[in-house]
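Hi there. Long-time user, first ticket. I'm pasting a complex I've been working with (about 620 residues overall). I'd like to know whether the download I got is complete or cut off, because the file seemed smaller than I expected. Thanks.
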Amino acid sequence: MNIWQFVLKKLIGVLPLVIGVTLVAFLLMVYFGPDLTYELLGKNPTQQDIDNMRSYLGYDQPFIWRYLDYLRELLTVDFGLSMMKDRPVTEMLAQSMPVSLLLMLPGFILGNVLAVMLALKATQHRGRWPDKSIMTFAVIGMSISFLIVIIAFQIIFSSSYGLDWFPVRGWNMKNAEDQFSMTLYLYYVTVPTLATLFVSLGYNTRFYRAVLVEEMNKDYIMTAKAYGHTSRNITYQLMLKNAMIPIITRVMFSIPLIVVSGSLLIESYFGIPGVGLMTYDAIVAGDQPVLKAVIGLTSVLFVLVLLVAEILYRVFDPRIDSRQVA
Amino acid sequence: MSLSVNTTPDIKEAQSPTSRAWWRFKNDHWGITGLLVVMIYFIISLGVWFGIWGLDWSQTSDAFHQPPSLDHWLGTNAIGQDIANRGIYATKVAFEVGLLVALCATFLGTIFGAIAGFKHNSWIDSCLLWVMGVLDSIPFYLFVAAMAYAMSELVFAMHLAMILVFWTETARVVRAEVIRLKHMEFVESAHAIGQQQVLILFKHIIPNTSHLMIIQATITFVAAIKTEVILSFLGLGVKGGISWGLMIAEATNDIQAGYFNNFIVASGLLFILVIAFNLFSDALQDALDPKLNK
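Hi, the file is complete. Here it is re-exported in full:
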């Protein structure tokens, strides 16, 4: 089977998933969601107004047409106007997505790189004190709620009760000359990044350590040792390379969350105008066009990442194809 | 033979897997500590359940922002409510959420996972895998938000959303184990003597996945409690009661005024319970994982 046939097969295989994901988003957001007729109408509407609004919202259409209409919205990335802001949802997304990306990226990269390094350290000293202290730290990091970390870090770094080095709220990348300023960026991004880092390090380190330990117990490592390779060589040139598949998988599956959904908690707590805050405002206000856009887009992107991951495995490791049983 | 008995006097070859697991768990000090702490929390929430303590959690008084004293062990909040009472009552709420979600999600996950694994490579398996794939593809917090939005009148919207999301992980684990089990001799011999399919699944296969059910239930419990706090904080969770998440939401206003009691109590109670449960869960996994049984 050549690579294009494989891609085509996977593409067809992923279709049911796309249909399912969009169907759930549609059912929750549009079909079973609250009736919006009266929220959009003014006071004392006539029957004519009500009928007009209902047909504008598509309530008089059969199920399948409304679902297809939602699919069309997803395909053309055009979700109409936000109910609260009277602006096109697409425009709002285009504005907030870069903010979320800038906010999440440093924490995401550092969180994964540091976790792999810590996991390597722990695996090398398995069962001894560096391993034990790193894993204790990981369990503590996993056990503290993200919410608590955010509030505590804000008290420590941004309030007058603590160091008071960073702002409590807000997001402003432009300096007086309206240019992107690195200092300002660091000023606003540091505390959210530290909070993200603190929480993700625990989970990531545990996951990567498990991956590395499993790799270390395989026969080829024993062979390499028997041949007299240095442990440094074995770790970095053999073990890490072979452990890359689960590591890359984990990284890839986090991408949709970072690109589209941002972080509900961080953005709403720090008042950063990214997708997370936009979603949070939409949840509180019941702004359906925004919600169905964010949920639909994130889910579809997730399925696409799944597809790309499978194709990449095949490209980098042709054996995967023959192993595809389940 | 005698050598192995000498080196590990407590484990004998003939012991059952269960007693071997119990022996391993007993010797895991962190796991035992975790279990004890969880039991203390459980007793606290039972006390609330039976109406012994924590009942005055919503009672207001004119003693605002009191520091800890004999009357109010952990102080009071902005409208004079006793923080200790609120923390205790919230413990019950957390346990309710954790237990309900863990039991339902584990039950659903085991049943569907076992059926999918038993009917491996059939259309039932494909359908169930499709459902799991769909649920796993929707970002979790957005899914819960969508549920809360769609069923804003329902008190149990949050619980339902968590159950719907959490069962898939258990189902995947159980499914993999059932696929492994169904090719083993004891299942084949049950087939050979003509036992019914349903009986084989429920009498012979599912009981053999019980260790996975226990482990998954503890993992789901912790996840549910942590999620409840964040959802309640965002206003999507517990309605008509008090929870640690709601206390922390309250506390964000107190913090600006320099009162930390509420925040410290709620987050401290949450942290201790979660870390104890994590330790307990880790010890259980080490004790029950058959891979280590060699």
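A couple of notes from our side: Chain B touches chain A at residues 130-131, 133-135, 137-139, 141-143, 145-152, 226, 229-230, 233-236, 245, 248, 251-252, 255, 258, 260, 263, 267, 270-271, 274-275, 278-279, 282 (CB under 8 Å). Residues 75 and 261 of chain B are 7 Å apart (CA to CA).
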